[in-house]
Design brief:
The protein is α+β, with helices and mostly antiparallel strands. It has helices at 46-64, 70-91, 138-144, 150-153, 192-195, 200-207, 213-226, 242-245, and strands at 2-9, 19-24, 34-41, 99-100, 102-108, 111-117, 121-125, 129-131, 175-180, 186-190, 233-240. The protein has one domain (2-133, 162-245): PPM-type phosphatase domain (Phosphatase 2c, domain 1, 4-Layer Sandwich).
C-alpha cells in the first residue's frame, strides 16, 4: 500500500495551465501504480494540449503493454508519445513546435522506477532531499561542463531552455533511474514551477511535516505562489507505507 496526493495550479502569471498530472494508485497494465507530471510548451494552447496528449498516450501504452520490464514499458510508452505528438503537430499548423517534459514514477515493492525527459523533477526526501532525475536543460549542461555553479544556475537567464522534450525531435531519449526506498522516504514529482520558486531546504521542511499529504502539497503550491508564482505549479507526493519499504 501507498498514499499519494496530486495538485496542479496555474500560478500567478500564466493565462493557461500547460502542466498535466496523472495519478493511479492501482495497476495500469503490468505496472502496480503510475504517477506522471508533464509541463507543456508551445504557443496558444499547444503546450496545454501537448502535456495532456502525451500523458494520455503514455497511460494508454502502459495499459496495452505486454512487457514485464518497467524500463521497457516506460521507454516504449514515451517513444509512442513522442511519435504521436510529432504527428499531431504536423496535422495542425497552430500546434507547430509543441512539446512537453515528462517525469514518470512507479513504486514496485520497495523499489522506485523513474523515467524523465526534460526538466520536470523527481526527488526523494527523508533526512535529506535528493534530486534523482537530472534536468535536460542548457543550464544543467553548463554545470556539468564546469561553466557555472548551482548557485548561479538558479537565476541564470537561460534556465528555462530545455535540451530534450517529447515532441521536439523525431526520436526522444529518456533517462531511467532505479532506487531502493528506505523507511520514511517521501517521493516528490514536480514541474519547474515549483523548483524555480521554492528552494530544496524549504521543500524538504514542508514534506517532513506531520500533516496530511494534501496539506503538504497545498503548502508547497502556496509558497511557490507567494514567491512569485511565475509558472504553472504541479506537485505529486507519494508516501510508500512502512511495510512496503521495510528491509528484510
Amino acid at each position: 500500500m501507498l498514499r499519494s496526493y496530486a495538485i496542479t495550479d496555474i500560478g500567478q502569471r500564466r493565462q493557461l495551465n500547460q502542466d498535466f498530472i496523472y495519478l493511479s494508485e492501482t495497476p495500469i497494465g503490468n505496472l502496480p501504480n503510475v504517477f506522471i507530471v508533464a509541463d507543456g510548451m508551445g504557443g496558444h494552447n499547444a503546450g496545454e494540449l501537448a502535456s495532456r496528449y502525451a500523458v494520455e498516450t503514455i497511460v494508454d501504452e502502459i495499459a496495452l503493454s505486454f512487457e514485464k520490464n518497467p524500463v521497457m514499458i516506460l521507454g516504449k510508452a514515451i517513444e509512442k508519445a513522442n511519435t504521436n505528438t510529432r504527428q499531431k503537430a504536423k496535422e495542425d499548423k497552430h500546434l507547430t513546435g509543441m512539446g512537453t517534459t515528462v517525469v514518470i514514477a512507479t513504486c514496485i515493492g520497495k523499489y522506485l522506477e523513474v523515467a524523465n525527459v526534460g526538466d520536470s523533477r523527481l526527488y526523494v526526501v527523508n533526512d535529506k532531499i535528493e534530486q534523482i532525475t537530472v534536468d535536460h536543460s542548457l543550464v544543467e549542461e553548463m554545470i556539468r561542463m564546469g561553466g557555472i555553479d548551482r548557485a548561479a544556475a538558479r537565476n541564470h537567464p537561460d534556465k528555462n531552455i530545455i535540451t530534450r522534450a517529447i515532441g521536439a525531435r523525431d526520436t526522444v531519449e529518456a533517462d531511467f533511474f532505479n532506487l531502493e526506498l528506505n523507511t520514511g522516504d517521501i517521493v516528490l514529482l514536480c514541474s519547474d514551477g515549483l523548483t524555480n520558486m521554492v528552494d530544496d531546504d524549504t521543500i524538504q521542511h514542508v514534506l517532513k511535516q506531520k500533516i496530511s499529504l494534501k496539506e503538504r502539497a497545498e503548502e508547497l503550491v502556496a509558497i511557490a505562489n507567494q514567491n512569485g508564482g511565475k509558472d504553472n505549479i504541479s506537485v505529486i507526493i507519494i508516501e510508500p507505507l512502512t511495510d512496503e519499504v521495510e528491509h528484510d
